[in-house]
Amino acid sequence: MVTIKDVARVAGVSTATVSRVIHDGGHVGAACKARVKKVIDELGYRPNTNAQALVKRTTYTLGVVTPKLSMSFFGTLASGVEDSAREKGYKLLMSNSLYKTESELDAINSLRNHDCQGIILHSEYSDEETLIKLAKDVPGLVLINRYIPSLANRCVWLDNESGAKKATEYLLAYGHRQFAVVTSIYQNRDPSTRLESVKNTLESYGLTLPKKAVAESTANIDGGELAIKELLAKGVKFTAVVAYNDLMAIGAIHALFDAGLRVPEDVSVIGFDDLPAARSCRPRLTTMHYPIEEMAAYAAKLAISLSDPANSPGSKTHLFIPELVERDSVSQRGGTNK
Fold first, then answer.
1. Cβ(40)–Cβ(7) under 8 Å?
2. Among 180, 219, 224, residue whose Cα is nearest residue 202
3. What is the four-CA torsion angle of 192, 194, 200, 202, rounded to 10 degrees?
4. Do 179 and 134 reside in the same domain of the chain?
5. Is 338 inside any structural domain?
6. pLDDT tens digit string along 40-62?
7. Which of 29, 52, 149, 227 gets the highest tally of CB atoms within 10 A of its CB?
């Protein structure tokens, strides 16, 4: 079995230098780092994480808690975390909260019991007081998609307000004045923030979003279909739909076609997330790109950094901005559903 001493001998460096290269710590020159990595690859060296854990009292493990990993959005989040974890030589443990406060806390405690140095938490329902206390107990805790002012230096979050504003203004630029919103029933902050941003943006243009033009449902394809059917059954008139996420947008398109309305000729639809499904549906979905994989990779690096007592959290905030992706589901103001 190849050992760290073998790598050090062949590379002509100390074992401490090899260790720093493996864990991307300390100051190692670029040429030296490249030489050590080349030797590691040539010898096929694999760090003994169990031995490291015994010596350094660390398991080099990151934890991830999301509501439901089987959902495409959260699977992408986990993939982003894993990329950074592997790069830093960390293993990954994942758990579902299943949209329940108790399950979320159970998942966090389970990861802590496995000695995770850092935890990337997509928290839906835990209150701020609980999370603030948790941050004191887990130095490597990072919140993703959640912003708490007193924990700003460990929050990696998205500007939902500006994203919804951009989506609304894009539809306005295409001449749309009759809007509908299909949004999520889940009681987290994203749906309400995006909805309020749509309303405020319309008001800034002298328009009002009627209460009856907002339909809530589950944040999936079925939910999008049901929301549109509800709006049509109430006789709501609209030429543009702003959907909470891509899955609801795709469901909305299905329901519109079932009702004899064409997208985008009669009704334009815009989503949020930019999931792979947005590129494969027909018409291809115009949407707001949610850089969740990049955010997750960033969050993992932040969690690893914060888990080191030598590193200070500092006062830096970690805000990401969604960007518009133009495809085929938006056109000039339609004429059939007036």
1. yes
2. 180
3. -130
4. no
5. no
6. 989 988 776 545 544 444 568 99
7. 227
Of 308, 170, 304, nearest to 241 by C-alpha is 170
The pTM is what? 0.79
Whether residues 123 and 271 fall in one domain: no
The CATH number of residue 186's host domain is: 3.40.50.2300
Rounded (10°) angle between helices 221-233 and 246-258: 50
* Residue 73 and residue 272 in contact, taking contact as beta carbons nearer than 8 Å: no
Residue 131 belongs to what domain range?
Answer: 59-158+292-322
Quick check: is 52 in a domain? Answer: no
Domain count, the chain: 3
Length of the chain: 338
Q: Are residues 132 and 251 in the same domain?
A: no
Check whether residue 65 and residue 181 sit in a common domain.
no
Residue 127 belongs to some domain of the structure? yes
CB 142 within 8 A of CB 306: yes
pLDDT in tens, 96-118: 998 888 999 999 989 988 888 89
Strands 140-144 and 286-289 come out as unpaired
CA distances from 235 to 213, 238, 312 (A): 10, 10, 57
Does a cis peptide bond (omega within 30 degrees of 0) precede residue 210? Answer: no
| Residue 264, preceding peptide bond in cis (omega within 30° of 0) | yes
Beta strand 323-325 with 286-289: parallel, antiparallel or unpaired?
antiparallel
